[in-house]
Amino acid sequence: MAQTANETIHIAPDQLYSWTLDLLKAAGIKPADAEEIARHLLFADLRGVSTHGTSRLKIYLSRMEAGLVDPGAEIRVLKETPVSAYLDGGNHFGQVVARRATDIVIEKAKSMGMAIVGVKNSTHCGAMAYYTLLMAKAGLIGFACTNAPANMPPFGGREAFFGTNPFSVAAPAGEGQTFVFDMATSQVARGKIINAAREGKPIPLGWAIDKDGNPTTDSKAALEGFVVPLGGAKGSALAFWVEMLSGVMTGGPIGPALPKMYEAMGEPQKVGHFFMAFRPDLFLTAEEFNRRMADTMDGVRNVAPAPGFTKVMAPGDVELANEARNRETGIPIPPGIRREFAELAEKYGVPFPA
User: Fold this and answer.
1) What does R_g of the chain's alpha carbons equal in angstroms?
2) Is this structure's pTM higher than 0.85?
3) Which of 40, 251, 307, 312 has a CB 3.0–4.6 Å from the CB of 95, allowing a cystine?
4) In terms of DSSP bridges, do strands 114-122 and 226-227 run parallel, antiparallel, or are they unpaired?
């Protein structure tokens, strides 16, 4: 049966990656950088984090065409010590800038035991777990965070000050598994509301408030309003912490001074990132650390499930299950994204495989 334009389709991961790569290269992005961006977007889609996957292609390329993302920028090291580096991303694609920062922090941490890297003048860099998992695969405990344009009031407020300000932590946990989580400091990533509005769907109560500060299930009203902090005052404090590391410490714009990706099409974003890595063998041997991490993760999984749950999962288990499913059944492409892909395919002369 022929599929209609209003149906979600599924596409094989390798096909989606190849199309994304060809599209980025057709748009004028250098092949090596296009490969890095395409890998990152596929990573997010596979793990079920579609808000940070190929759904961002249209806005990324629109901002590049407007001169707000510079694919030819030099990523400069402004200051460096044996355990730190301070980078100017030059408003290059965030995935390219953040990968450079991750490679530096890994190299320094493996040599010195621990390291930090700060970044200014970057752009949206996608799923933070991509970077912490690279650190974990290198045998390190990793941390990564980024600030974002203001769309969340501090606890008790009705004016946006913080972004969703996500962070991720990852660590090796023995053979075949990794401890990893990636979370926004808001109740939900704003990308989920954007996707809901794109598809004309409501959102759950508790995700956002409208412009007058009232709780709403209307995705479009939520986009005109604000997301809310995760856990009230606690999420607000975490957002402040990420802002300190990514914005205050790196010398970039803070809170409301950060241009919004979808609305501010006249100025670059100047996003800040922060990365940290350290060796797990600073106290115990790496082998003992891995064994204890594996035992702890298994201990969590073996906890008796509460009513309504079939099993308890350790951090990272849900994303692994999503990846296994999406590799088998294909990555879902909902109607709104299909329409955007069709526009991009026609514009750049790269036919979409579906």
Assistant:
1) 20
2) yes
3) 40
4) unpaired
